[in-house]
Amino acid sequence: MRAAWIVYRKELVEILRDRRTLIAIGFSALATPIVLSIVTQVSTRTATQVYTLGYTGTVPTGLDLLLTSTGLKLERVDDPAAAAKRQVDLAVAFLPGEIDEYYDPTRQSAQIADVRLQVILGNYNAAKAAAALQAKGVDPAILTPLKVVPHPLSSPAAAAQNTFLSFFLPYILITMILTGGFSAALDSSAGERERKTLESLLLTPAPRSRVLLGKIAAVTTISLVAAIAAIASMFIALSQVSLPSEAGNSSHLAINPVAVPVMVMVALLIAVSFSSVTLALGTLARTFRQGQAYVTPLYFITIFPASIILFIPDFNPGLAYYLIPILNAVLVLREAIVHNAVDWAALGVTTFSLVATGLLSWLAALRLFTREALLTRS
Amino acid sequence: MTEPAVTVERLQKTLGKKEVLHGISFIAGKGEIFGLLGPNGAGKTTTLRLICTLLAPDVGSINVLGFDTRTAPSEVRRRVGVVTAEIGVYPRLTARENIAYFARLSEVIDGDVRPRVEAVLDRLDMREFAGQRAESLSSGQKQKVAIARAIVHDPAVLMFDEPTSNLDVLASKEIRDFMVESKNRGKSVIFSTHVLHDAERLCDRVTIIHEGRVVATGSTAEVRGAHRDLEQSFLSLVQVS
Question: Which fold has domain A52-143?
């Protein structure tokens, strides 16, 4: 193993002196806080934004106050249908006993204004009906024959936190492991051929399997460093975001204790597996650029399963699905984050799948690394 | 001829669909400079790669200092130092780090690495640029790094593949001087070249390869024969073959 350690140390020194890798790690660390900051600002602005409600006719008594206090600014218009296209976010025509509403569903501002208007009108109608019943001596409770009393098993803030983390954390972890080690893996494989150092390296008595092991270990280390940098910066950024809690105080996003070891294990497995795959693909290439062409499709292939939770949040597959690399990592992490629990069977299948992927990739890389064509193919 | 250092027998090798070597044989002795000569594409580099175990022969055998390249490749590599035709160095490592890396991979024990590297730096007059990153070195300086890493484990057999082809006059002279010095230290030096003038000045014995076949082998004087120089001899041999 001495040869593997020698190669590992040399690769790390070279990687850390490579501007491309340092930029990739720096990007990993900075990208998440920047994205989160933009998302938070956009969300806050959307929540406090005042939308314009165009109208014709006479506004019912008291409704104008309700509308203004809910961030809907009234503006008289001549033609509500025409005004709703550009001039205002939403337009209504107040008629006797009826409100005609005009809005363009393709405009996000119209959708948000519409939701606000529906809530206000619902409350206004209910209050009016209750007042009318009370005036006639009827208990307004008759309007709600089945009263619903909600008993949420976790706080809405915690649910929102888990939903957010269950998507973002696996996504960031996987993409940053891949992008963080991308440049290092290609430099260590295709770069070795491009710089014409491969022949000299293979001339040493060091067994090729050990040389490859040292390279994979170095790329894995860099991948993990990039992922840790990205996740740490994400939590630092999240610590600046306040969430409302039950007691009326504010709290911050935090990961539950079960998810941490699961995340570490999954990250390690993915990093080893990806390092082997990218090194195998890089070994096929003669130049760094050619290696990029081979490895880039891998990035898109892996991003798809990593994104699946965004499109299908309640995706609850059988154990066989846990054989699919990356998807299995995302599902196991989601289980740990959302339910604060580990599905041991799923974790077992996931471990088997990722170890098998890493092993097969390592064998492929070794086969490529030991064939004569590595030196003679022009 | 001195005692054999490298013995090549009936070597055949096909790369892809091309049969590169058609059963070549020769012996390079201990403590001599042996020239493997021939035009580009003759099979010189393939032969050297077979000797240093980067490639395996299809037919035939190679023995280096008593070790068969097929059955004991690691033993062969421990005893051979190769300066390849294409000088590749790790650009983000310094000259010293490049040499130390190869010393460690060549199984120089940890305590010996530093003195060995420093000794090689002195021997090749590399002190001035030893701490510079290889990416900033000139071609001649990179060539010295390539030589240093090939000799840092003190191999008994040194092989140079077209060592002067990309160098200026001064750097070429340094390489030639180094080969003579190595011979004087008792090393076996095998070098391939298509520059027959270099071979004539340096080699004790030569083998001329043409299209994968040996067309002449023997002492430099024997191969030159009645011709004015090796180049004339080579041209007449190629025309005959």
Answer: D-Maltodextrin-Binding Protein; domain 2 (3.40.190)
Is B224 part of a structural domain of the chain? Answer: yes
Position B61 scores a pLDDT of 93
Whether residue A190 contacts residue A283, with contact meaning beta carbons closer than 8 Å, is answered with: yes
The answer to whether residue B208 sits within a structural domain is yes
Chain A residues in contact with B58 (beta carbon < 8 A): none
Query: Does residue B181 lie within any of the structural domains?
Result: yes
Q: Which of A198, A203, A376 shows the shortest C-beta gap to B52?
A: A203
Q: Which chain A residues touch B149 with a CB distance below 8 Å?
A: 200
- Would you say B212 and B24 are in contact if contact means Cβ atoms under 8 Å apart? yes
Q: Do A203 and B54 touch (CB under 8 A)?
A: yes
Which residues of chain B does A202 touch, with a Cβ-Cβ cutoff of 8 Å? 54
Neighbours of B59 (CB within 10 A): 13
Q: Is the pTM value of this prediction over 0.80?
A: no
Cβ distance A204 to B74 less than 8 Å, yes or no, reads no
Q: Please tell me the distance from the alpha carbon of residue A334 to that of residue A347, in angstroms, as a whole number.
A: 12
- Chain B, 26 to 55: residues with Cβ < 8 Å from chain A are 49, 52, 54-55
List, by residue range, all CATH 3.40.190 domains of chain A. 52-143
**A254 has a pLDDT exceeding 70:** no
A205 vs B78, B86, B97: nearest CB: B78
* Nearest chain B alpha carbon to A377: B16
Phi first, then psi: give them for residue A56, nearest 5 degrees: -130, 160
Which of B42, B63, B46 has the alpha carbon at shortest distance from B54? B46
pLDDT digits (tens, 9 = 90+) for B81-104: 999 878 889 999 999 999 999 999
Q: Per mean pLDDT, which range of A1-10, A130-139, A168-177 is the poorest?
A: A168-177
| DSSP-based three-state secondary structure for B184 | helix
Give the total number of structural domains in chain B.
1
B45, B90, B132, B147: which to substitute to probe chain A, counting the most A Cβ within 10 Å?
B90
Sheet with B33-37: strands ordered across:
B80-83, B157-161, B188-193, B33-37, B205-210, B213-219
Q: What is the pLDDT of residue A43?
A: 67
